[in-house]
Specification:
Number of domains: 1
Structural class: alpha+beta
Helix content: 10-25%
Largest sheet: 8 strands, antiparallel
Strand content: 25-35%
Strand order of the largest sheet: 1-2-3-4-8-7-6-5
Distance between the termini: 21 Å
Order of helices and strands: HHEEEEHEEEE
Shape: globular
Length: about 140
């Protein structure tokens, strides 16, 4: 699935609705219960398939979480269905970014995350115990 191409689409976009229905995903409205001026968001999770969507207050898909390792009730996403490179460690991701001229930022200590700034948006790679565990895709503003 081309997760990056889904970014920026409306919740009721035919392509998004097709994914929601195919995966049996429910959309959950998360509003600012504590009146802290937080934006309302919508969540849609496919725990068995290893991914989750976050829609902004305008119901635009702003973030896709890809669970590479089982975590928080999510099974690992099928690696062959992920359309972005998956790096086994931060060092390899950094080497690839440098080689391709991708601007990036990384954790200052612990080697636990690296964020690449791509034409399509931002890819945030999180590592736990040295292994890739989560990839977060967001639009350019994310």
């Amino acid at each position: 699935m081309n997760f990056e191409l889904l970014l920026g689409r409306k919740l009721k976009d035919d392509v998004i609705v097709e994914v929601l229905e195919a995966q049996g995903m429910e959309v959950v409205y998360d509003f600012d219960r504590t009146n802290e001026n937080l934006a309302d968001v919508h969540w849609a999770a496919a725990e068995a398939s290893g991914f989750q969507f976050r829609f902004d207050q305008d119901q635009m898909l702003e973030v896709v979480f890809l669970y590479i390792a089982a975590s928080e009730g999510f099974s690992p996403v099928a690696r062959d269905e992920v359309d972005v490179p998956l790096y086994e460690n931060l060092k390899r991701a950094k080497q690839d970014f440098i080689q391709k001229g991708i601007s990036y930022t990384e954790s200052e200590s612990g080697n636990w995350w690296i964020k690449g700034h791509f034409e399509a948006g931002i890819r945030h790679y999180e590592f736990r115990d040295g292994a890739l565990s989560l990839v977060t895709l967001s639009g350019k503003a994310g």
